[in-house]
Write a structure and sequence with these properties.
The complex is a heterodimer of chains A (521) and B (501).
Chain A: H1 6-24, H2 29-53, E1 62-70, E2 75-81, H3 83-102, H4 111-129, H5 133-154, H6 159-188, H7 193-202, H8 205-212, H9 220-238, H10 248-254, H11 257-282, H12 284-289, H13 291-310, H14 315-338, H15 346-381, H16 393-396, H17 398-412, H18 419-433, H19 435-459, H20 476-494, H21 497-514
Antiparallel strand pairs in A: 1-2
Helix pairs in contact in A: 1-2, 1-4, 2-3, 2-4, 3-4, 3-11, 3-15, 4-5, 4-11, 5-6, 5-11, 6-8, 6-9, 6-10, 7-11, 8-9, 9-11, 10-11, 10-14, 11-14, 11-15, 13-14, 13-19, 14-15, 14-18, 14-19, 15-17, 15-18, 15-20, 15-21, 17-19, 18-19
Chain B: H1 4-18, H2 24-47, E1 55-63, E2 68-74, H3 76-95, H4 103-122, H5 126-147, H6 152-180, H7 188-193, H8 198-215, H9 224-231, H10 234-259, H11 277-298, H12 302-322, H13 326-358, H14 363-366, H15 371-374, H16 376-389, H17 396-411, H18 413-438, H19 456-474, H20 477-487, H21 493-497
Antiparallel strand pairs in B: 1-2
The chains are: A mainly alpha (521), B mainly alpha (501).
């Protein structure tokens, strides 16, 4: 499979699909959605081809393409994937296809809606494959703009406020990232993530910063410290990590549910991807220095968001906070693995990171599925989604409740479903690496179980709410559409090796590279 | 062959004088064909150009006793601006398709302006450059005074007075340089080689630089720009912001900086913290960036928002020039192109697509009209233009502003950070305008505005400008491969010997 520009092709698929929809579909909504689905399926097919051709035995970058793009700025067109990139591509393609399917019967989602979803997918593909900052940043922003308009134009009653809040927060994060990388470029003349990580490993980065960025007489360490926090801010807003999360609940709640699927399923992974691909390799020493604070932030993300979710009565808001909670485990795993152990505890680090990767993928499928079910419920209830608006749905719509129950139990981390192995591995790795943080985060698991069970009890069980007596159960089409997602959850729950086997070499390589630290520590 | 960009524009104007006045359709077709021909010639010239060379197009004696020649030539920088002029000229005609009143005269003046602009960019004789530069002022005045809107006489007069004041400063500098160099030649190539004494350059540089920079919207001499842009008819706003402001910036680089590079050297003493003209102008440029963006943020008039945004974006050009580095100056030239295209697009939306239909530019009145539903094409175009204007990656503005910031960081770190703040304010005003004009929240019962649909001409014009900014944004080497070799050519030897990094 080598030699052919597979990754470029992959990015072009949704991009050309979007343009095709805008040019061809006209007022014909059926044509638009069919084109969107075909494009989404084609993109998924290409990612599966990539997976097929991927050599899981090595952690090296594969399918590499590199051409000079803007020589004046040292910008290359440089794309490649390792296990992490492949995983992110797979989940983006799956979530995008699920999102398109969830909008299938939503009449107001017309041609522009589907085109924007595909633009967003292109942005995701680009972000997960680009290895040069400028090129990467282009796609990072490309995904932000369609997301803004998806919320702004099709959201709920508070959509203007939510979209603006989302935009401002993520834009501030983007500017922080831009500044950090501009400074790195000025110091080193490089934009390439791999080159920068190499410089950080060999200890060249700090002297270069000291020599070329002696602004107001700061030492190289101090400059690196500031740059680390700038870049951290960019990713922390995107994931989000508490306290940078305040944009999230209203955004997830106001966005149409099919868009929320993309936001939580795929876009939040951009932040985690950034932590793993960029922050950890380029600023390992700074991360080590900030570790206690970072672990507290991770614990806060896990625990506070679970408590906040418990207090919600709106399902979408509840699952929004629950998303912060689930991604908080990933953050915990990453920070725990960042601890400098002088070469020991490598197995634990690998376990934690394997868990993180697994959780990234599982959360994408699970969160997208849950918001899909919320969308199906909203469609039947005319937009109602409060915990107290329903009751006894189990008797009225057993298939719906059964399938959504699987997704909710997966979120709860029930063994046998896909939520379990990721969280298990993260805790297994984090306990020896950051014991107190892991113990405190355990509270999050407990609270999650409480509020999710409460949700099931109030919505599915209890006395039947007469208002919904005639609510239809899932139609055959809907059953067929959600079936693959549910099947995936079951399969991954029983056999997580599919994912772990793909990413393990990448994880091992990352752990090996984290071993040496620049002088000063 | 490049000289035909000038001739064909003037020929087109001449044809328009000859055809019957009542025939508006013929007038715009002639104007369009002329603009396309000019652009085609510029493209052909750029394709056949060897990077770094200076191609002499015509060189004949004109006033031999004064050493004045009719000398047209082009390097990569000229070509970049010729391409810009061509693109904006075509789009401008397309966005003037609905001009009915005295349309033949409108397009005559329009084509004369275009021809004069081509002339400035191609002149390599200082006197000739000055002639074309003055020639451009006259059609500008009439375009605004006759076809303009809000306070058009005032705006036209203000523009003309500022332009003439700037020209007067330039003229003094030009004559002084001519005399100082022995009174034998006005040839730019030879003058660039002539070692003017340092003390002479020290006063000639600021004089000529400010003279040209007035037209580039240098703060605090920018006040003609917003009023002029607002009063002008759409096509004239597009040319004014898109191309005419570039005449000023081009003059700053081609005449002031190329001939008097030592004027940028340190004075040897500090006055109010400024150590050289370079420091002073960099701070003025930065003030323009932040001030223009801040004022744009609070305007109620749609066109004023865009008028002030031009001041802000042209501040980047001037800041880039003052960085005195290959990366900063090439960024400045790229920004000239980029801003030309983007400002053209923004004015096309504000002036043609929105104002001609709604007859208001008040943001508070536009909001309730729900224009995103009524004219979705305008909304989409404005969103794209706003994204390009704030410098999102993928659009030409990103590469240009990024290069300027990199250059500025090396030369003046504090200013670079403040310029970054200017970019943030820029995001805010573009976004505010977008939100207020197109996505305002309307009372449910508001009547749907009844207005003509977006015409094919408008669609084509928008597509051309968007295509230009995207092409350069995605593949900046299209222009950077012209610009950077030009900056490394012998013409700029003097500049590169100084503080150049």
């Amino acid at each position: 499979m080598n030699g052919f520009p597979w990754i470029t092709l992959l990015t072009l698929v949704p991009l050309s699909g979007a343009l095709l929809i805008l040019l061809v579909a006209g007022k014909n909504r059926n044509a638009a959605r069919a084109l969107a689905a075909a494009t989404g399926a084609a993109a998924l097919a290409v990612t599966i081809l990539l997976w097929h051709g991927f050599d899981a035995a090595t952690g090296a970058l594969q399918f590499q393409e590199r051409y000079a793009w803007i020589p004046a700025l040292g910008v290359d067109y440089h794309v490649a994937i390792d296990g992490l990139g492949l995983l992110a591509l797979l989940l983006s393609a799956i979530v995008a296809l699920m999102s398109i399917a969830a909008s299938w019967d939503t009449r107001e989602h017309g041609r522009l809606y589907f085109a924007l979803v595909l633009f967003l997918e292109a942005g995701l593909f680009g972000t997960f494959t680009a290895l040069n900052f400028i090129h990467w940043f282009f796609f990072w922003e490309l995904s932000l703009i369609p997301a803004f308009f998806l919320i702004r134009l099709w959201g709920g009653s508070q959509r203007a406020r939510a979209a603006n809040q989302f935009f401002v927060y993520t834009m501030v994060g983007s500017v922080a990232l831009l500044l950090a990388f501009l400074a790195l470029y000025l110091a080193t003349g490089k934009f390439d993530f791999i080159d920068l990580a190499q410089m950080a490993r060999s200890g060249q980065l700090i002297p270069e910063l000291a020599r070329n960025l002696s602004w107001h007489h700061r030492t190289g360490e101090q400059t690196a410290w500031w740059l680390f926090w700038l870049a951290f801010l960019g990713f922390a807003v995107k994931i989000p990590i508490i306290p940078f999360h305040t944009w999230l609940p209203s955004t997830y709640a106001e966005a149409p549910s099919s868009t929320t699927m993309l936001l939580t399923g795929a876009m939040s992974k951009m932040g985690l991807y950034g932590l793993l691909r960029i922050l950890l390799p380029i600023f390992p020493a700074q991360m080590q220095r900030a570790l206690t604070l970072l672990l507290w932030l991770a614990v806060a993300s896990v625990v506070l968001s679970a408590l906040a979710a418990w207090a919600q009565t709106d399902m979408k808001r509840m699952f929004a906070y629950s998303s912060i909670n689930h991604l908080g485990y990933c953050v915990l795993g990453i920070f725990a693995a960042a601890r400098w152990t002088g070469g020991s505890l490598a197995t634990e680090k690998a376990a934690a990171l394997d868990g993180v990767y697994l959780q990234i993928f599982n959360h994408a499928v699970m969160a997208a599925a849950i918001f899909w079910f919320v969308a199906l419920l909203e469609k039947r209830s005319g937009g109602l989604r409060g915990l107290n608006d329903f009751g006894g749905l189990r008797k009225i719509a057993p298939v719906f409740c059964g399938l959504m129950g699987i997704a909710v139990f997966s979120a709860l981390g029930l063994p046998g479903l896909n939520g379990f192995p990721g969280e298990f591995l993260i805790f297994k790795g984090a306990f020896p690496l950051a014991t107190w943080a892991a113990v405190l985060s355990g509270i999050g698991l407990l609270v999650t179980a409480i509020f999710l069970l409460q949700l099931l009890e109030r919505v599915f069980f209890g006395p039947v709410n007469e208002r919904w007596r005639t609510m239809p159960d899932l139609s055959l089409g809907e059953r067929l559409a959600v079936f693959p997602a549910i099947a995936l959850m079951l399969v991954l729950g029983f056999y997580p090796q599919i994912i772990v086997g793909t990413v393990n070499s990448t994880v091992v390589q990352l752990v090996t590279q984290l071993k040496p630290l620049p002088p000063g520590f | 062959m490049l000289a035909w960009t000038i001739y064909i524009s003037f020929l087109g104007a001449l044809v328009l004088v000859l055809i019957p006045k009542a025939n508006a359709g013929a007038a715009r077709v002639v104007a369009l064909l002329t603009a396309i021909a000019g652009f085609a010639i510029a493209v052909a010239g750029a394709c056949r150009y060897t990077p770094g060379a200076l191609i002499t197009v015509v060189r004949v004696a004109w006033i031999p006793s004064l050493g004045i020649e009719y000398h047209l030539a082009a390097d990569g920088i000229s070509l970049t601006l010729l391409l810009l002029t061509g693109v904006v000229a075509i789009a401008g005609v397309l966005f003037s398709w609905n001009v009915e009143r005295r349309s033949a005269e409108f397009f005559e003046l329009y084509l004369v302006l275009i021809g004069a602009v081509y002339g400035v960019f191609l002149s390599f004789d200082l006197f000739l450059l000055f002639v074309f530069y003055e020639l451009a002022i006259i059609p500008k005045y009439f375009l605004i005074a006759i076809w303009g809107s809000t306070r058009r006489e005032y705006a036209a007069m203000k523009l003309a007075l500022y332009s003439f004041a700037g020209s007067a400063m330039v003229l003094i500098g030009v004559i002084a340089a001519f005399v100082e160099a022995g009174g034998r030649t006005m040839n730019l190539v030879e003058l660039a080689r002539y070692p003017f004494p340092a003390h002479f350059q020290m006063w000639a540089f600021p004089l000529v630089f400010v003279g040209f920079a007035i037209l580039a919207g240098l703060w605090p001499f920018h006040t003609w720009a917003p009023t002029g842009h607002v009063a002008a008819p759409t096509a004239a706003s597009m040319l004014l912001a898109g191309v005419v402001m570039k005449l000023g910036a081009y003059g700053c680089l081609r005449v002031a900086m190329m001939l008097f590079p030592r004027g940028l050297d340190p004075w040897g003493l500090h006055v109010l913290g400024f150590g050289s003209w370079r420091d002073l102008f960099a701070v003025l440029a930065l003030t323009g960036i932040v001030y223009g963006a801040s004022v744009a943020l609070v305007q109620r008039d749609f066109k004023f928002v865009i008028g002030y945004s031009s001041v802000s974006h042209m501040g980047f050009v001037l800041l880039g020039l003052m960085t005195l580095s290959q990366i900063g100056v090439s960024g400045a030239v790229l920004q000239m192109f980029s801003h030309g295209v983007i400002a053209g697009l923004l004015f096309a939306v504000a002036g043609r697509m929105v104002y001609d239909r709604t007859h208001t530019r008040d943001l508070r009145e536009l909001g309730p009209m729900r224009l995103a539903k009524v004219i979705p094409f305008a909304a989409v175009t404005f969103v794209i233009a706003a994204m390009a204007s704030v410098g999102l990656p993928g659009f030409s503005g990103f590469v240009a502003e990024f290069e300027i910031l990199v250059g500025a960081w090396r030369a003046f770190p504090t200013l670079a950070i403040l310029a970054g703040v200017g970019i943030l304010i820029g995001i805010a005003f573009a976004w505010r305008a977008m939100d207020k004009v197109f996505f305002g929240d309307a009372p449910v019962a508001a009547a749907r505005l009844d207005c003509p649909r977006i015409s094919l001409a408008e669609r084509l014009g928008a597509a051309i400008l968007i295509g230009a900014t995207l092409a350069v944004g995605v593949y900046p080497r299209l222009l950077l491969d012209l610009i950077i070799p030009a900056l490394n050519s012998p013409l700029f030897d003097g500049l590169r010997k100084g503080a150049w990094r």
